[in-house]
Amino acid sequence: MALPIFFVILVIGIQAFAARGCVETERNALLAVKAGLTDPSNRLSSWEGQDCYKWRGVVCSNTTGHVLKLNLRNSYNDVNKRPSSALSGKINPSLLLLNHLKCLDLSLNNFNGIRIPAYFGSLKNLR
């Protein structure tokens, strides 16, 4: 009988942790990514506070709080028609701290033809 109670307490504890916000190291990594980007249309304005699961483009696990997806895709298909909406700048290597990241979408932004950083190959969980 004590074993089921232990599991209930464990699940409640995990949910309480996730409800507090995302993992601090991952939140700081996201803020470092934001700091390296130029965001002329202020798409990343929601990236403040402790709850990065509420940030635009960030999807976190409901149980662990880890960042699973990062969608920074430009919503305008033709960057030439709306260049002021495109993110640009440098993609910070702190992205590597997002160990549970499964999906990363940076499409339709303007990184001025730079090569995909070699460290992207270290993002082992991307699908």
From TrEMBL:
Cited InterPro entries: LRR_dom_sf, LRR_N_plant-typ, RLP23-like
Span of domain Leucine-rich repeat-containing N-terminal plant-type: 24-61
Residues making up the signal peptide according to the UniProt record: 1-18
Swiss-Prot/TrEMBL keywords: Glycoprotein, Leucine-rich repeat, Membrane, Repeat, Signal, Transmembrane, Transmembrane helix
Any Pfam family: LRRNT_2
Membrane topology, record value: Single-pass type I membrane protein
Compartment list: Membrane
An example Gene Ontology CC term for this record: membrane
This protein's name: Leucine-rich repeat receptor-like protein CLAVATA2
Organism: Ananas comosus (Pineapple)
Record lineage: Eukaryota, Viridiplantae, Streptophyta, Embryophyta, Tracheophyta
